[in-house]
Specification:
2 copies of one chain form a homodimer. Chain A is α+β, with helices and mostly antiparallel strands. The first copy, chain A, has 3 domains: 12-68 and 123-284, BirA Bifunctional Protein, domain 2; 294-404, Anticodon-binding domain (Rossmann fold); 417-487, Translation Initiation Factor IF3. Chain A is built from 13 helices and 26 strands. In chain A, strands 3, 9, 10, 11, 12, 13, 16, 22, 23, 24, 25 and 26 form a 12-stranded mixed β-sheet that branches. Chain A has a 5-stranded mixed β-sheet with strand order 18-17-19-20-21, with helices on both faces. Chain A is globular, with a radius of gyration of 26 Å. At the A-B interface, strand 2, helix 2, strand 3, strand 4 and helix 3 of A face strand 2, helix 2, strand 3, strand 4 and helix 3 of B. Strand 5 of chain A pairs antiparallel with strand 5 (91-94) of chain B.
Chain lengths: 490, 490
C-alpha cells in the first residue's frame, strides 16, 4: 500500500491517527471539533449498536427519542449540579437566517430566542422533565428506556473517536420505585457493558466504582468499566450511574407507592459511545493496521482470487461463489474481492490494514488440489485447508480468533496491573511500565488531586472485587482500608 | 378505555391528535416545536428503519455519519440556492455556559463563535464539502452513502410526526461520474420508496415529478411519492432529487474521467422521515384507534387470556406459551398480555387502540375444544380456529391483513382521483370531494401560484405515467400537453 506507516513503538499517538485515517474509519470535519465517521468506521458502529441494542432489549428496555435541544432553565433545576455540570455546550440563540442587501447570509437579529437552547450534552434534564408527565403511580414503574442519539460537548483538544465535540452514543434512563431496584439496574447495565466489552470487543475490563472527584455530577454512585490500551494507558469504556432521587427532586417527579405514599422516583442512567471504536482500535491493532475481533468485524472473511487468465478467474469465481454461499448460510459475512484493478498483494495489504479477521486466497493450483489458503489477521498464521468442509472450519476458526484476541489482551492487561507500596515505586512504575497501579489511598479528594497534578495519573476506579485490607496511603502515609487502581488515562 | 374518542367524521385533525396521544406514540416536548417519540411510536420507526436500511443496502448503499453543525459560510457557497434555501434554522452562536454571581446559569459572553454554526436542516452542504476530499478520479465513483440522523427546521405551526422542528430521517447522498448514472440512481431510490410505501406501509402512492415551484432549491429535478390520507388530503411521503452538478460546482468537487478530463461530479439526494409514521396513521386508522399493517407492527399478535381461576390461568398460560413459541419460530412477533391488573375487555380495547393486527383470545372453554378466537384489527372479523396448525394459519392471516389493508387504501385512493376539465368543476370537486384532481395546467408558475392562493390546492406532481394529450389549462385556458395532479396537502 502507498500509505505511510507508523509503528506503535515509535509514536503511539501518531500510529493511532494514521490507522484511523488509512483504514478509512473517520476524519476530522471542517467543523471545529467534529468528525465524519466514514462508511467502514460506521459499519463497526452498526455492529456494536446491533449487539448492544439486542442486549438492552433482552434486559427489558425499549427505545425512544427525546429532543436535541434543552432549554437553559432546565439546567438550573439541577441545583446540586449547577457547579458540577459540563458547561462547554453549544448554545442556540437564534432561529432564522436571512439574505442581506449584499446577498450575504446573516443571522436574522430579529429571530432571537427568548430563552437559549442547549444542544444536549446528555439528556437527564429533558428526559426527567418528560418523565414527570409519565409517572403518577407505582404502576407506571419501572420505566426502562434507552435512546440512540448524538450529543455535543465543546472540546478544545480532540482525538478521533476518543474525544470529539459531537459524538454518537446510547443513553439509558430508567425510573424505579425503590432505591434497591435502581441499584440492581445500575449494576445490571454495568454487567451488560462488561459482557459486551469482553465477549464482543475482546477487551477485558475492570469493573469498579468512581471516586467522588470522578463521579458524574448528578450521580450518587458512578460505576464504570475500564480497559487498558497497548500503550499502558487506561480508557473508560462505559459508565452506569445510580442517580438516587436527584433528578426526581430537580424535576419534581413523584409517584404514589403501593402503600399510598407520595415518594420521589429513583433513577439510573448509563451510556457508551463511539469512543468504543477508539478502544477497539487501541486494544488490538498492530503496526500493519487494524485487528478486528470477528464478532464486530463488518467483513469477517475476505476472499482474494489469484489468477493470470480470464479462464482461471472464471473457474475461481465459480468455486468462490459456492464457498461464499456456504459461509453466509452459517451467518459469516464474506466479501469476494474480485476487483480487476488491483493485484493480490495490494489486496492482501489493504484487508490487513482494514483488519478483516480471515483471508482466503485461492488460485488455479488450489482449485486443482481442492484447497484454499487461509491467513489469520491476528497471528498472521497461514494454513492450507480443504475446500470440503471449509464452512465449518472457518466458523470454528473465527471463534478461535475471537478467543485468541481476547486472551492476548487479557494477558497483557493482567501483566500490567502492578501492586505498588511506596511513592517512589509508584512514580517509577508509572514512568517506566505504565498500566494500572494498585495502591492504597487515604480516601481524600486532596490526595487524589495532588497525585493527579504530580503524575497525571488518576484513580480509574475502586474495583468491585477489591478486598478490604489495612494499609497506608502510597502518597500521604495515612491509613487506608482498600487498594484502588491508578493509571494515566485517555 | 377511559380515553376520550373523537370520530374522523367529526374532526379529522382532532381525531389524529387524540390517536397519537392515546396510542402512546408521541407527545409535544417542552421545547418549542419539538416532539418526544414515545417507545411505542419509536418501535414503529425502528421497524421502518430496519426495512429501509435493508433495501438501501441491497441497492449497494452504505451508512456513514456527518456533523450535526454546518458553518454558515457553507450555505453561501450554494450560490444558486441562496434565495431558495430554508432559512428557518437553529443557529449556534456560543459554546459555553457559566454560573454567574447569583448562581444563575448564563451564556458566557466570552464564548462567542467566530462563525455561527447551523444545525443541519439537510446535509448536502456538509457532505459535498466532505466529498471534495474523497473524490479525485472516476475510480472513486460512485459514492453511495446514506445517513440516519436528526435534522432541524424551525417550524411555527407544528403537528406531531407531520411537521416538527426536529425530526428523524435518512438522507442518501450519492456521487456519480455521469448524468445518466445519477438519474438512474434518483429513479431507483424513488422505486425503493414506492416499494416500501406500498408493500410495507400498505399505502398506495403516485410517483411523479415536482414542478419548479415545488422543487428542492438545489435540485435539477425532484421526484416524489404522494399518498392520499383518509380526509382526502395528499401527503408527500418521500423525495428523490437529481442534483445535477449544482453541489459539485458549489463545493468544487471534480473528478478525472476515464478519458482523463476534469469534470464536475453528478449528484443525487433522497430522504424519508418520521413523517411516514403520520402517513401510516392517517392512511389506515379508524375511530377505534390505530390500524397497523403487519409488516410494520411492533407487535403483530397479542394473546389475551380469559379466566376466572388461577388454575385456569395456569392451564391457559401453558397453551399460550406453546402457541407463542410456534409463532415466533415463524418470525411472528407475539405479546402475551398476562397482566392481572386489567380485565379482558380493557385489554381488547387497548390493543385495538394500539393497532395490533391480530388478537388471540383464549379461555377455558377454548382449551377444552382445542380452539382459540381470532380477531382481526382491520375488519374486526372474528373466527374460531383450531389450535392445531394455528401458526401457519396466523401467518397466512397476517399476509391477508397486509394485502387487505393495502387494497382498501388503494380502492379509496383510486376512487379519489377526479378528472376535471373546468375551473368550476375544479373548485366543486376540491370543496365537496377532496382527493386528487387530475387537470390540465399551462405549465407556468404564475398559474400554479394563483390556484394555490385561491384554493390552497398545490400541484402534488406530474405523474410519471401521465400520458401526453392536448388540452387547455383548467385555470388560464391556455394550451397544455399533459394532466397534472392537484390536491390540498399536509
Amino acid at each position: 500500500m502507498a500509505f505511510e506507516k507508523v509503528k506503535r513503538s515509535d509514536n503511539y499517538s501518531e500510529w493511532y491517527n494514521n490507522l484511523v485515517k488509512n483504514a478509512d474509519l473517520a476524519e476530522h470535519a471542517d467543523v471545529k471539533g467534529c468528525m465524519v465517521i466514514k462508511p467502514y468506521g460506521y459499519a463497526i458502529w452498526e455492529k456494536m449498536q446491533a449487539q448492544l441494542d439486542k442486549m438492552f432489549k433482552q434486559t427489558g428496555h425499549v427505545n425512544a427519542y427525546f429532543p436535541l435541544l434543552i432549554p437553559k432553565s432546565f439546567f438550573e433545576k439541577e441545583e446540586k449540579n449547577a457547579e458540577g455540570f459540563a458547561k462547554e455546550c453549544a448554545v442556540v440563540t437564534h432561529y432564522r437566517l436571512k439574505v442581506d442587501e449584499n446577498r450575504k447570509i446573516i443571522v436574522d437579529p430579529e429571530a432571537k430566542l427568548e430563552e437559549e437552547l442547549i444542544i444536549r450534552p446528555t439528556s437527564e434534564a429533558i428526559i426527567w422533565n418528560t418523565y414527570k408527565g409519565w409517572i403518577q403511580s407505582y404502576r407506571d414503574l419501572p420505566l426502562l428506556i434507552n435512546q440512540w442519539a448524538n450529543v455535543m460537548r465543546w472540546e478544545m483538544r480532540t482525538r478521533l473517536f476518543l474525544r470529539t465535540s459531537e459524538f454518537l452514543w446510547q443513553e439509558g434512563h430508567t425510573a424505579h420505585a425503590s432505591s434497591e431496584e435502581a441499584i440492581i439496574e445500575t449494576k445490571q447495565m454495568l454487567e451488560v457493558y462488561a459482557d459486551f466489552a469482553e465477549n464482543f470487543m475482546g477487551v477485558p475490563v475492570i469493573k469498579g466504582v468512581k471516586t467522588e472527584n470522578e463521579r458524574f455530577a448528578g450521580a450518587v454512585e458512578t460505576y464504570c468499566i475500564e480497559g487498558l490500551m497497548q500503550d499502558g494507558k487506561a480508557l473508560q469504556m462505559g459508565t452506569s450511574h445510580f442517580l438516587g432521587q436527584n433528578f426526581a427532586k430537580a424535576f419534581d417527579v413523584k409517584f404514589q407507592s403501593k402503600e399510598g405514599k407520595l415518594e420521589y422516583v429513583w433513577a439510573t442512567s448509563w451510556g457508551v459511545s463511539t469512543r468504543l471504536i477508539g478502544a477497539l482500535i487501541m486494544a488490538h491493532s498492530d503496526d500493519e493496521g487494524l485487528v478486528l475481533p470477528p464478532n464486530l468485524a463488518p467483513i469477517q472473511v475476505v476472499i482474494v482470487p489469484i489468477y493470470r487468465s480470464d479462464e482461471d478467474f472464471d473457474k475461481i469465481s465459480m468455486a468462490v461463489n459456492d464457498i461464499k454461499k456456504k459461509l453466509e448460510f452459517l451467518g459469516v459475512s464474506v466479501k469476494y474481492d474480485n476487483r480487476d484493478t488491483h493485484k493480490p498483494g495490494y489486496k492482501f495489504a489493504e484487508w490487513e490494514l482494514k483488519g478483516v479477521p480471515l483471508r482466503i486466497g485461492i488460485g488455479p493450483r488450489d482449485l486443482e488440489n481442492g484447497t484454499v489458503e487461509l491467513a489469520r489477521r491476528d497471528t498472521k498464521e497461514k494454513s492450507v485447508v480443504s475446500i470440503e468442509g471449509i464452512d465449518q472450519h472457518v466458523k470454528q476458526l473465527l471463534e478461535e480468533i475471537q478467543n485468541s484476541i481476547y486472551k492476548k489482551a487479557f494477558t497483557f492487561r493482567d501483566s500490567s496491573i502492578h501492586e505498588v507500596n511506596s511513592w517512589e515505586e509508584f512514580k517509577d512504575v508509572l514512568e517506566n511500565k505504565g498500566g494500572f497501579i494498585s495502591a492504597h489511598w487515604d480516601g481524600t479528594g486532596e490526595t487524589e488531586e495532588k497525585i493527579k497534578e504530580l503524575t497525571k495519573a488518576t484513580i480509574r476506579c475502586i474495583p468491585l472485587d477489591s478486598k478490604l485490607e489495612d494499609g497506608t496511603c502510597v502518597f500521604s502515609g495515612k491509613p487506608s482500608k482498600q487498594r484502588v487502581l491508578f493509571a494515566k488515562a485517555y
